[in-house]
Write a structure and sequence with these properties.
It contains 40 helices and 27 strands. It is elongated and about 120 Å long. The protein is of the alpha+beta class. Helix 5 packs antiparallel against helix 6, helix 12 packs parallel to helix 31 and helix 30 runs antiparallel to helix 34. The chain starts with a helix and ends in a 15-residue tail after the last helix.
């Protein structure tokens, strides 16, 4: 291959063709394949910096040079497919069938109008669907995998598509490799390469080895491949190949195979199958194809439900057409047939599924603006029904920016850190030292004075001087049992000043900063030409053992040491001795007794009660082979040998402040009837302190109202919860609001317990082990910043900021989408009933020949369908949330949008419009006309048809206006159109503000309003096409009917509010006779805990809630709106 060839291919980036690419080479050929070079040589050749990574500017330049890191498998938006989908769908085919019937009976005008409507629907539908697809395509790119890279010395998360050759990439267990990388650092690092090599077992990687140029992909142990998954450990590496130049890129075409849509033939064990099996497979395949065409087996549950509704309405439309023919004695005259077709069309919701798709696409776009990426559209429907949110603490409810606030060393005392304004700067902030244990210090009454009970401010150097070995041993564990990097470099913005940077886990960064205050920075200890310590092995944090350990070799004494940190209970369980005084003599060690363990736990609980996350530190000198030991200390050493016989070194307390938005977000959840559960790995006291601070637990002042059994159940440890059988969990008076020391399996049990109580839950997760709980939850929520790729793949939505407040925003957006779907479906169906009712009852008007005189002409019907459905319904889909959407309980997914209130509203609005339209027709014909229905008035205009044509125009104007005005009335299904903002002071003009706020809906309605007039007054068009004539004084009927329309709808809404308010007073508030909106937050969410003592109480309250949700006013969603005026 010439040098220019790969350059051209590289310029194509992710879409380039890698067919001539040499395996193991970079996008631009290196002197040898990457696996044959040392990582130092590779970094030099490819222009990479193994410490600070590429600069952002250089990364941008290389992205332009090499293109995106993509395999080119994404099809993107395909206009041809959209056009075909617009034409080849059930609703359009019904219109085409109607057009064919019209032309078949030589009804050219009606057929032409239907053809125009079809063309308009296809064009408008195409552009709307195209826009929606573009939106969804951009959202899919947002939910694509991400990678952690180091650029300019800062670790950052970027989309995998933006990775370039030369990038320094960090990966850990659960991550998916974004590109082919040459490893420069690996700790217990194994990857699953089954996708590439077919090897079923994980492959352990090394760093220093190099291999021959011709070594196969499966044996290149110093390279990790794109799309493989990290099954163990962590690593850093330099990217050398991206896009189609990766190993997986060479076989990308094999990954792009589509799932077959043909049902397989069921065969016997010997491989044979009878003819009936082939017939069965073909029949099922055909059924699947028809189902896909009709939309009843594709899409989200709501999309499938609405497609089935469309099929039902199609059946009703056929019945309506038969009724029209029957009323006219199956006369085959042209006018009768075309009227039957038009009546059938009046029941077809042509825009329903399209508007639903566009509404959901717009909703997902709005969610991105609120830091939520939707991976599964089904979650949009589910979010509004969430009754419980199970959230992690660290980084979700809290900021995830931990700082060390306190430490205790036996025999020395307590160190308290007063922070400066730079948490990662070890030179900022003061340290106070007191010889007392934490349990002997009153932290809450401490002040910043020199007489503080936490001791005087003391310089770190002085504290080190005053210690012989104890503080040094403690700091060694802090620094070495730690993977975080804390370093300083000159600021690029302000030359001459030093900026401190940190990379790694927030917990480890905080501990590393504490060690760096005493100049025990890990970089100083393990790097340089003559480092004091050399790392031998690493045993990463395991959620089962809740410990992390390293084996280090002292380069001066050649001794091996084990350094361990982790959960206090788990670490002290592995400790056998400790020191209660300072000094180098190992004989001073004392055995760990039950009394000392109790002392440790008391000190831990003191720190935890301050909201600190407490870790224990321990270490030991490992025996050498020449001193009788037989073990070689390395990564193959059993973990149990390392984490045993340890010496306890002390405790360190880390503070992770709650996010400023967490308390208000939890409060919003409680207002919305959503219980928040904290599932954390922290100590119970730490979890309890933070839970009270953010409002998950009731304030301490309110705990006196809680019975002992309930108080015990509100906060539990995972060991307590997991020790209970399912029956015992179900017998608890309440499910825990806080579970501490939580393991991944505990999360699954919690979800199952919630499901058994009829709850609908969302669960957060970020680790590999969280995948089962994310899949089991009704809505799985992954963390976008700290989450592993495995967790993201298992989730329904991803939070781009890892913020609990974003979960609340997602719930609010889910409720808004649910509401808006309910509004436009109600609008469509009520309009269908109104049209069908007017046309069917109008069959009673018969002329002298015995044929029905139609109150609406066929073209008028089609025009109303076209003008009043699509765009106004779309506008309702874009409507913002009602003011108190988060002040009502969750809706029920069992009823969905088709609640009892919905069905009654649909019938009332449809029949009310029908009554007004028929009344306007009757008044014009019989009250202010001569009652003469003329002769052949369905066909053409004549003098005898003047009355009928004027009555028809009046009815047409009424129905058009009512259908348009109904869209505005449905902006809020209960509040008055003139008072949709309850807190507004604009008593007479607020409705003007409301109609102008949603400009799309405003112009859709105004457009439909204006287009009415040309159809009435343009000559020929009015008589020949629409079969009506211009009206004059009849507008008085229209205006009076419009007033009655508003009066009827407003009266209906008022009656609903009064009825629901009275019923809520009788059954609301859990029997307290209060409306949901009138209850305070403690009563709403903690009411079930106050004075309750049995599971039966909670079941009773749950039944009450479900009754409110599903039956009260039949909304299933709106008990929080009972008091609206």
């Amino acid at each position: 291959m010439t040098k220019t060839e790969p350059d051209k291919a590289a310029a194509k980036g992710g879409n380039g063709h890698g067919g001539d690419h040499v395996s193991g080479q970079s996008n631009k050929p290196l002197s040898r394949p990457a696996h044959a070079l040392t990582h130092q040589d590779l970094a030099h050749e490819i222009g990479a910096d193994p410490l600070s990574g590429l600069t952002p500017d250089e990364a941008k330049r290389r992205l332009e040079e090499y293109g995106k890191n993509e395999l080119g498998e994404a099809e993107g938006v395909q206009p041809i497919k959209i056009i075909i989908a617009q034409i080849a769908n059930a609703m359009t085919l019904v219109l085409i069938l109607a057009m064919a019937v019209s032309f078949g009976i030589k009804s050219w005008i009606e057929g032409g109008v239907v053809a125009f409507v079809i063309g308009l629907n296809v064009v408008v539908g195409f552009f709307q669907e195209y826009s929606a697809e573009k939106t969804m395509d951009s959202l899919r790119s947002l939910s694509s995998p991400t990678a952690t890279v180091v650029r300019g010395g800062e670790a950052m998360v970027v989309p995998s598509g933006e990775i370039v050759p030369g990038d320094l990439v960090e990966v850990k267990m659960g991550d998916t490799l974004p590109a082919d990388i040459r490893l420069i650092e690996a700790k217990n690092f194994e990857t699953d390469e089954a996708l590439l090599t077919g090897e079923s077992l994980p492959v352990r990687k090394t760093v220093e080895s190099t291999f021959d140029d011709t070594t196969g992909p499966g044996d290149r142990l110093n390279v990790a491949y794109s799309s493989s998954t990290v099954t163990k450990g962590r690593a850093k590496g330099i990217v050398f190949a991206t896009g189609t130049f990766t190993e997986i890129g060479a076989i990308a075409s094999a990954l792009n195979k589509k799932d077959s849509k043909v049902r397989p033939v069921k065969r016997k064990p010997n491989g044979h199958a009878g003819p009936h099996r082939y017939l069965e497979a073909y029949t099922l395949t055909l059924g699947d194809a028809i189902g896909r065409f009709l939309g009843v087996n594709v899409g989200t549950p709501l999309q499938r439900k609405l497609s089935k509704l469309a099929m039902l309405l199609f059946g009703i439309a056929v019945i309506c057409a038969i009724i029209v023919l029957g009323a006219n004695k199956f006369n085959t005259r042209q006018e009768v047939i075309i009227y039957a077709v038009a009546t059938g069309l009046s029941m077809i919701p042509a825009s329903l599924v399209v508007v639903l798709t566009i509404t959901m696409a717009a909703g997902t776009k709005r969610m991105v603006e609120r830091n939520v990426i939707v991976r599964n559209l089904k979650s949009l429907e589910a979010l509004g029904a969430v009754t419980d949110i199970c959230s992690d603490k660290t980084g979700t409810l809290t900021q995830g920016k931990m700082v060390a606030r306190g430490a205790w060393i036996p025999g020395m005392g307590t160190y308290t850190v007063e922070l400066g304004d730079e948490p990662v700067n070890p030179t900022k902030g003061d340290i106070r030292f007191a010889k007392q244990m934490p349990s002997e210090i009153d932290f809450k009454s401490s002040t910043h004075s020199e007489k503080s009970s936490t001791g005087p401010v003391t310089a770190p150097g002085e504290l080190l001087t005053c210690s012989t070995t104890r503080l040094q041993d403690f700091l060694s564990v802090c620094s070495l049992a730690n993977l975080a990097t804390v370093f300083s470099k000159e600021s690029e913005e302000t030359p001459g000043t030093v900026q401190w940077h940190a990379r790694g886990d927030p917990t480890e960064i905080a501990i590393q900063v504490f060690a760096s205050r005493f100049d025990f920075n890990r970089l100083r200890l393990v790097s340089g030409s003559n480092p004091e310590w050399q790392e031998v092995a690493e045993f990463p944090f395991d959620s089962d053992v809740k410990r992390m350990s390293v084996i280090m070799k002292n380069t001066q004494t050649q001794e091996h040491w084990a350094f361990t940190k982790g959960a206090v209970e788990r670490v002290i369980g592995a400790c056998v001795n400790y020191f209660d005084s300072d000094g180098p003599d190992a004989a001073m060690a004392k055995p760990v007794t039950d009394e000392f363990r109790a002392e440790i736990l008391r000190n831990m609980e003191t720190f935890a009660s301050l909201g600190l996350r407490v870790l224990a530190l321990a270490s030991r000198r490992l025996p050498s082979s020449d001193s009788g030991g037989t073990t070689t200390w390395n990564e193959e050493t059993p973990r149990s040998l390392i984490e045993s016989d340890l010496t306890f070194r002390g405790l360190i307390g880390l503070y992770d402040p709650p996010r400023p938005s967490s308390a208000s977000a939890v409060h919003q959840c409680h207002e919305a009837g959503i219980s928040v559960h904290m599932l954390t790995g922290d100590h119970p006291e730490t979890a309890k302190a933070i839970a009270i601070e953010v409002g998950i637990l009731p304030p301490l002042a309110s705990m006196s109202r809680v019975s002992a059994a309930v108080a015990h159940a509100m906060v539990m440890t995972a060991s307590q919860f997991d020790a209970l059988s399912d029956d015992e969990v179900d017998a608890l008076p309440v499910l825990p609001l806080v579970i501490a020391r939580c393991a991944p399996s505990t999360k699954v049990r919690m979800i199952e317990a919630l499901h058994r109580r009829g709850r609908f839950c969302a669960m957060t997760g970020d680790g590999v082990n969280d995948s089962p709980s994310l899949r089991r939850a009704d809505v799985g929520i992954a963390m976008g910043l700290s989450g592993s790729d495995v967790a993201k793949d298992a989730s329904d939505i991803v939070l781009t900021d890892d913020n609990f407040a974003s979960i609340v925003a997602a719930v609010e957006e889910g409720r808004r989408i649910f509401d808006n779907i309910q509004k436009f479906v109600l609008h469509v169906l009520a309009e269908n009933i109104a049209q069908a009712g007017t046309l069917l009852i109008g069959l009673a008007f018969k002329d002298a020949s015995g044929l029905s005189v139609f109150p609406l002409a066929p073209v008028e019907i089609i025009w109303i369908i076209m003008i009043t459905s699509g765009l106004p319904d779309m506008g309702l889909g874009f409507e913002r949330a009602v003011p108190d959407i988060m002040a009502r309980p969750p809706q029920s997914l069992r009823t969905g949008i088709f609640t009892l209130e919905f069905l009654i509203d649909m019938i009332f609005y449809g029949l009310w419009i029908t009554a007004l339209c028929l009344a306007s027709f009757v008044l014009r014909v019989y009250a202010w006309g001569n009652g003469d229905l003329g002769n052949n008035c369905n066909e053409h205009y004549s003098e005898s048809c003047e009355t009928v044509f004027r009555a028809r125009a009046t009815t047409f104007a009424c129905l058009t206006w009512f259908a348009l005005f109904l869209a505005w009335e449905l902006v809020d299904m209960r509040r008055s159109f003139f008072r949709m903002q309850p807190g507004s002071k604009k008593y007479f003009t607020q409705w003007m503000v409301d109609v102008w706020r949603n400009k799309f809906l405003f112009w859709a309605i105004v457009g439909g309003f204006v287009t009415l007039f040309p159809t009435l007054y343009i000559p020929v068009v009015n008589h020949a096409v629409f079969k009506h004539t211009g009206i004059s004084w009849e507008w008085g009927i229209v205006f009076i009917a419009a007033g009655l329309f508003f009066g009827g709808v407003e009266g209906w809404k008022w009656a609903k509010r009064v009825f629901l308010r009275r019923r809520a007073v009788k059954s609301g508030g859990g029997g307290q006779g209060k409306l949901w909106k009138d209850m305070d937050v403690e009563e709403k969410i903690f009411g079930e805990y106050f004075g309750s003592g049995s599971f039966a109480d909670e079941v009773s309250l749950q039944d009450t809630r479900e009754s409110k949700n599903e039956n009260q006013g039949a909304t299933g969603q709106r008990q929080g709106e009972q008091g609206r005026d």
